[in-house]
Design brief:
six-stranded parallel sheet; alpha/beta; 12% strand; globular; 6 strands; 32% helix
């Protein structure tokens, strides 16, 4: 394909995409209204306050991901986006709040395992509310976030021992017992409820309700070719002479 033909096809493609009618959006869950999840969301209170530290890549890629569904369901929760939270104003405000006892949900040798350890060993100060930071990102991203965030890294850690596989059927997990952010928090709440740190009476299952609707819709889309998608329009291939060669692969020619 010549450069002129490529540019013409690209112009036609952009024109075609611009002609598509703009879909109405729900400004609560930020989904198109025809796939809005709000009717499946049943918000509930928890004694602990959850803060999802979401990696920038996760925030850009997963605009409708499980982290945002979790915060929409947990009344006492929030999302803070970044990588290095050392100087993050909101994070440091929470850490300095005397009403909270901060911990981070992250595995480690000295992590308190709510599935196995005696809850009496947690030593939660009387009158303080548990503040749980949850690292939301891929494992490599999460590791970097913990490494560079000097205010999060030394916090006492929480973990649990999952006894079931993830139901996130539309996403490949690195290990059979690796759970999504939503599933991890649901499992943690179940263990905290069992240990007496929460009093939920099954309210935590509201997380699984919205999660199931999300997964069911994604499975439906993957099997129904009539569902429209931006990927349904084939983009023209860039001509070889217009492709940018990475600097590390460029050859130096000396006359």
């Amino acid at each position: 394909m010549k450069a002129a033909d490529y540019l013409q096809k690209k112009k036609e493609l952009l024109s075609k995409l611009n002609e598509r009618p703009e879909r109405d959006k729900c400004y609560t869950c930020y989904r198109p209204k025809h796939i809005c999840l709000c009717d499946a969301i049943d918000p509930f209170e928890t004694q602990a306050h959850f803060v999802l530290l979401m990696h920038i890549k996760e925030a850009k890629k997963e605009k409708l991901g499980t982290g945002r569904m979790t915060v929409a369901t947990l009344k006492s929760s929030e999302i803070i986006v970044g990588v290095d939270f050392t100087n993050d104003k909101r994070v440091n405000e929470l850490l300095a709040d005397p009403t909270y006892y901060p911990m981070v949900l992250y595995p480690g040798e000295k992590a308190f395992n709510v599935s196995e350890d005696d809850i009496g060993e947690l030593n939660l100060p009387e009158g303080k509310k548990l503040l749980v930071f949850v690292i939301d990102g891929t494992w490599p991203c999460a590791k970097k976030m913990m490494t560079v965030s000097e205010n999060i890294r030394p916090l006492p850690r929480l973990c649990f021992t999952p006894n079931k596989k993830s139901n996130f059927l539309i996403k490949h997990q690195p290990d059979k017992y690796c759970l999504s952010t939503l599933e991890s928090i649901h499992f943690l709440l179940e263990e905290m409820d069992r240990a007496g740190l929460e009093s939920l009476n099954g309210k935590q299952d509201a997380l699984l309700k919205v999660f199931k609707k999300h997964v069911d819709f994604q499975l439906f889309c993957s099997t129904d070719p009539s569902v429209p998608s931006n990927r349904g329009v084939k983009r023209p291939s860039r001509p070889k002479e217009m492709k940018i060669i990475p600097k590390k692969n460029r050859k130096i020619i000396i006359d």
